[in-house]
Write a structure and sequence with these properties.
The protein is an alpha+beta fold and about 450 residues long. Helices cover about 20% and strands about 35% of the residues. The protein folds into three domains: about 5-220, PmbA/TldD fold (2-Layer Sandwich), CATH 3.30.2290; about 225-245 and about 355-445, no CATH class; about 255-350, no CATH class. The chain has helices at about 5-25, 80-90, 125-140, 210-220, 240-255, 255-260, 320-325, 360-365, 415-420, and strands at about 30-45, 45-65, 70-75, 145-165, 170-185, 190-200, 230-240, 280-285, 305-310, 315, 335-340, 340-345, 350, 370-375, 385-395, 400-415, 420-425, 435, 440-445. The strands form four sheets. Strands 3-2-1-4-5-6 form a six-stranded antiparallel sheet. Strands 7-14-15-16-19 form a five-stranded mixed β-barrel. β5 and β6 form a beta hairpin. The chain is globular, with a radius of gyration of 24 Å.
């Protein structure tokens, strides 16, 4: 697997595309090349199930004719001139978009920046297989585990090249290494399933396969002999960090400028107001060195800075790309992400900042409640904030995890949940969305 991005050649081709688009009649244009390389191995019950390798270079050209815009994509080997002419012809017959256009020149990143996102370590299929088998063996060694649901290891890299007609030209690359294992405990209707995983930019920072496997086995065995909890209201629900990251994703969705512009966010009219409990901060940091979602510039060539999106519970910023910012009468904050031929706002290294209390002390302070380790379903309405999810985890009694619980539903409204939030101090920033253990008071639980 080739791990390098030939930025010189790809930049040259992207520049040619932009120049040909201008020659064909575009008033402005940008070209993007996304390069990806990956290798993965999956095993089950001691046998290799698959070994996969993939490589791709995807070219995208976006052109503007006045306020009309069109985008086209192609794989290597295409005719540059024909692609550029087709894109311009498409733009000429497209409806006008009053907010379309490249990022303002004054917002463009001008100096290269190395965020240490790339590890050149080459992982052979044999090394990946060895790691996957070791994870599975360690999980199966845990007493009570009945079988493997499979284990896998992967290594890959991605690169992005961006050229615009108003002077931006840049590229960067990032590596990614991963390990995961799923296991089953129990039999028949009493069977439980769980997993564990790790993902890093640098191979040497990955958790050991044996540790990942043992954690997966221990997690699933703890879930055996689960029961339903009694239906009740005003329940304090504690979210394990793995689940809390999804909760932070709901916050990110509610403060995404695109949702605000479409009026599909329940926070769309709340800028400058208290939306989270006082003392709670949400940060987004695109330039963090070795950050899992870092980038030296966004999909439009704009360099974003660290922002406190919600400060002391008060909403301060939306995630904004250039077009979304124009629609809202604002200025981009460098959160435009490429998705195929489109640019949409998104978070980078997003974090619900930790508090001062350990998760153990947080649980002790609750006394009685429900500790959630898994959520099921997608019962979240981002227009109204209504929240209802299937859940499993552990009942809390006398400040301790007492017994496993499954087949229950937790419900509330995100607007209320945001204001009843307490955070612990156990954040792990190795994920693009990071969160500590959190507790939310006043939820409804439907059980037996």
């Amino acid at each position: 697997m080739s791990s390098e991005i030939d930025s010189g050649n790809l930049l040259s081709r992207a520049e040619q595309l932009v120049n040909l688009a201008r020659a064909a009649g575009a008033d402005a244009a940008d070209a993007v090349v996304v390069r990806s390389r990956s290798r993965s191995v999956s095993v089950r019950q001691g046998n290799v199930e698959s070994t996969d390798s993939a490589e791709s270079d995807d070219f995208s050209l976006r052109v503007f004719v006045g306020k009309k815009v069109a985008s086209v994509s192609a794989n290597p080997g295409f005719d540059l001139k024909a692609l550029a002419e087709r894109a311009v012809a498409m733009a000429r017959v497209s409806p006008e978009d009053p907010f379309a256009g490249l990022a303002d020149e004054t917002d463009l990143a001008r100096m290269p920046l190395d965020l240490e996102l790339f590890d050149s370590t080459e992982m052979s299929s044999e090394a990946l297989t060895e790691a996957a088998l070791a994870m599975e063996a360690a999980a199966l060694d845990v007493s009570g585990v009945s079988k493997s649901a499979g284990a896998g290891a992967s290594a890959g890299m991605g690169g992005l090249v961006l050229v615009t007609s108003h002077g931006f030209s840049g590229s960067y690359k990032a590596s990614r290494f991963g390990r995961s294992v799923g296991v089953i405990a129990g039999e028949g209707t009493k069977m439980e399933r769980d997993h564990d995983f790790d993902s890093r930019l640098y191979a040497a920072e990955l958790d050991a396969p044996e540790l990942i496997g043992r954690r997966a086995g221990e997690r699933v065995v703890r879930r055996l002999n689960a029961r339903q909890a009694d239906t009740g209201s005003n329940i304090t629900v504690v979210f394990d960090p793995r689940v809390a990251r999804g909760f932070v994703g709901h916050i990110a969705g509610a403060i995404n400028g695109a949702a605000v512009a479409r009026k599909t966010s329940f926070l769309r009219d709340r800028m400058g107001e208290q939306v989270l409990k006082k003392g709670i901060n949400i940060t987004d940091e695109p330039l963090r060195v070795r950050g899992p979602a870092s980038r030296p510039f966004d999909g439009e060539g704009v360099r974003g800075e660290r922002l406190v999106m919600i400060e002391d519970g008060v909403l301060k910023h939306w995630f904004l790309s250039s077009s979304t910012a124009r629609e809202l009468g604002l200025r981009t904050n460098g959160r435009g992400a490429r998705g195929g031929t489109t640019v949409s706002p998104s978070s980078t290294n997003l974090a619900l900042e930790p508090g001062d209390m350990s998760p153990e002390d947080l649980i002790r302070s609750i006394g009685t409640g429900f500790y959630v380790t898994e959520l099921i379903g997608h019962g979240v309405d981002m227009i109204t904030g209504e929240y209802s999810r299937g859940a499993s985890g552990f009942w809390i009694e006398n400040g301790e995890l007492a017994y496993p619980v499954s087949e229950v539903t937790i419900a509330s409204n995100l607007k209320d949940m945001f204001m009843r939030l307490t955070v612990a101090n156990d954040i792990d920033r190795k994920f693009g969305v990071a969160a500590p253990t959190i507790a939310i008071e006043g939820m409804t639980l439907a059980g037996r």
